[in-house]
């Protein structure tokens, strides 16, 4: 008789208990803790995570949306982070359980540090950024004590070529500030990382200690924009690339996600502890222009392809909500009682307008929703069906 072993696995949304891993693979016709969605024309890629360690690894299902059949299968790490399509059927993934980037089930690039999550590629797909979920470092910048994590960057860049992939530069976000006169402790939390056209956008936090009160500190939320050419040259921060302190107008309540319009004139910021959705004008300089309280436990923020709507998924309140992008007016809300775990990732269907796919990770489901935002009188969000795989 075998003896069951138990372990604890830290994940982004909390901690789950897990039994001894099974050496079997996740069934090829099953959604199992689906975490990430990607699309290449009429093929949908679903990253299944092995969050409870019941299997030997996670996997990626490649689904033909015309037939809803699985036409491809790849093994992945048990706890995958973000994913990017390099080319047809070639997917690059961050591995949260081991310091590496993985492509087509094969380790592609060893990383220097643990907890890699964020992953973004340049438009030409020959360069990218990986961001780390680094732990809190209990040290002040003006403290001379060394820390095991004092040299760990929040972001690293890498280059892709026909001959392989290599790490290039490392970036510590504390270097984006002048020498501080007050005590600032690294919290090492990236809220979002975006590479869009010729720009790089970073959303991150620091904890600021109150110099007048020893036991009092405050979170500050920062937004940073830098030219892609500068970052590729090894310069994320410069005299012209200074972070904008969102906490000048908003009490920082944790950062969750970020979306940028195509013309890079507007940013949408999602805060998660006392959930807020912000609209930030980026030109001529950053300024918060609208704010609204949103659903509890927000997980993702997505801007629709026509940039008329903003969607937020909330796992804690089990809601998918839709806002008019210009004024953040709420126009749709869906709560699925048959999927109590709540929505996570959101993907706009490339094959048809006004349809979105939503992962319900804890419920092992993918929902399909329709939406419309034509005018103030023609706005809607409605559940259509659960995605069913044909066998």
Give a quick summary of the entry:
Helix content is 1%, strand content 52%. It has one helix and 30 strands. It is globular, with a radius of gyration of 21 Å.
Q: What does this entry look like structurally?
A:
The chain is mainly beta. Helix content is 1%, strand content 52%. It contains 1 helix and 30 strands. The strands form 8 sheets. Strands 3-4-5-6 form a 4-stranded antiparallel sheet, with no helix packed on it. A hairpin with a 6-residue loop joins strand 27 (346-348) and strand 28. It is globular. 37% of the residues are buried. The model is unreliable at 1-20 and 136-146 (pLDDT under 50).
Write out key terms for the chains shown.
391 residues, mainly beta, four-stranded antiparallel β-sheet, 30 strands
Average pLDDT: 84
Q: What's the N-to-C terminus distance?
A: 36 Å
The amount of helix comes to under 10%
| General form | globular
Number of helices: 1
Structural class comes to mainly beta
Strand order of the largest sheet: 3-4-5-6
Uncertain ranges: 1-20, 136-146
Strand content: over 45%
Q: Could you describe the largest sheet, including whether it forms a barrel?
A: 4 strands, antiparallel
Count the strands? Answer: 30
Q: Using only CA atoms, what is the Rg? A: 21 Å
């Amino acid at each position: 008789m075998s003896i069951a072993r138990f372990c604890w696995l830290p994940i982004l949304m909390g901690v789950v208990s897990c039994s001894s891993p099974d050496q079997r693979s996740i069934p090829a016709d099953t959604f199992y803790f689906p975490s990430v969605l990607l699309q290449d024309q009429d093929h949908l890629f679903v990253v299944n995570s092995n969050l409870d360690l019941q299997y030997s690894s996670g996997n990626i299902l490649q689904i033909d949306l015309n037939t809803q059949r699985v036409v491809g299968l790849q093994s992945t790490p048990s706890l995958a982070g973000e994913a990017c399509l390099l080319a047809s059927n070639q997917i690059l993934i961050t591995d949260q359980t081991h310091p590496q980037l993985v492509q087509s089930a094969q380790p592609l690039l060893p990383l220097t540090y643990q907890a890699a999550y964020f992953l973004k590629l340049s438009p030409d797909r020959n360069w990218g950024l990986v961001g780390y979920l680094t732990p809190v470092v209990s040290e002040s910048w003006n403290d001379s004590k060394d820390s095991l994590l004092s040299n760990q960057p929040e972001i690293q860049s890498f280059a892709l070529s026909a001959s392989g992939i290599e790490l290039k530069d490392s970036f510590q976000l504390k270097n984006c500030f002048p020498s501080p006169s007050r005590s600032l402790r690294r919290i090492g939390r990236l809220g979002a990382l975006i590479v869009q056209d010729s720009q790089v956008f970073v959303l991150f936090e620091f904890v600021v200690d109150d110099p007048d009160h020893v036991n009092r500190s405050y979170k500050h939320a920062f937004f940073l924009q830098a030219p892609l050419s500068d970052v590729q040259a090894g310069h994320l921060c410069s005299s012209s690339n200074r972070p904008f302190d969102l906490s000048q107008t908003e009490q920082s309540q944790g950062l969750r996600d970020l979306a940028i319009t195509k013309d890079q004139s507007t940013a949408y910021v999602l805060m998660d502890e006392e959930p807020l959705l912000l609209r930030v004008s980026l030109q001529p300089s950053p300024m918060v222009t609208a704010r609204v309280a949103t659903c509890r436990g927000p997980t993702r923020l997505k801007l629709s392809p026509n940039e008329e709507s903003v969607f937020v998924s909330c796992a804690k309140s089990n809601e998918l909500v839709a806002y008019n992008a210009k004024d953040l007016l709420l126009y749709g809300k869906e709560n699925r009682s048959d999927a109590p775990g709540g929505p996570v990732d959101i993907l706009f269907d490339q094959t048809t307008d006004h349809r979105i796919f939503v992962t319900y990770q804890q419920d092992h489901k993918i929902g399909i929703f329709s939406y419309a935002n034509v005018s103030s009188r023609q706005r809607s969000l409605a559940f259509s069906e659960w995605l069913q795989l044909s066998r």
